[in-house]
């Protein structure tokens, strides 16, 4: 849970949710829906869509409620309380994975079942990013790595003196779209500056790969 949301009152949450764009989708999990009923009513007045994922809760929706309920409670049939919680946790994990994957697809961050906008936070993901660039552009390893490193350091110059660990440390500085920019550099033979400008104009990364940018 985000520090901003942990142990917050409905009024605290409402202040945070007021900044949401119109018609946002807000998901409540299990008992939290009824615990936050006042907040739900306020959110619906702002035309936000509410979904309730029901796992172990025995409560039901009001007869005229327009909240969409995803009810897994009938599938959790074990009499063993510990097993109930284990099944509920696994079910919730799979459900949230599906939601987050769908969100990435809708934002254009996925192309051909590949998560393109990878945050290069360790050595494994550094080489994963290089493989993604190679796969989608046909570039060789040297070219893919050169573009990735230039994107990491936000420069048009070649970087040959730093280690991979130093590259990763540089990425950790909250840089966005490192891999997509490197991808566009390889696809279009752009400099870092040109690719960054193009990404700023076309934030849907999938469109870059399909040529719809």
Automatic annotation (TrEMBL):
This is Uncharacterized protein. Gene3D superfamilies: 1.10.8.1080, Glucose-6-phosphate isomerase like protein, domain 1. Pfam families: GKRP-like_C. Keywords: Carbohydrate metabolism. InterPro entries: MURQ/GCKR, SIS_dom_sf. GO terms for molecular function: carbohydrate derivative binding; carbon-oxygen lyase activity; ether hydrolase activity. It comes from Rotaria socialis. GO terms for biological process: amino sugar catabolic process; peptidoglycan turnover. SUPFAM superfamilies: SIS domain (SSF53697).
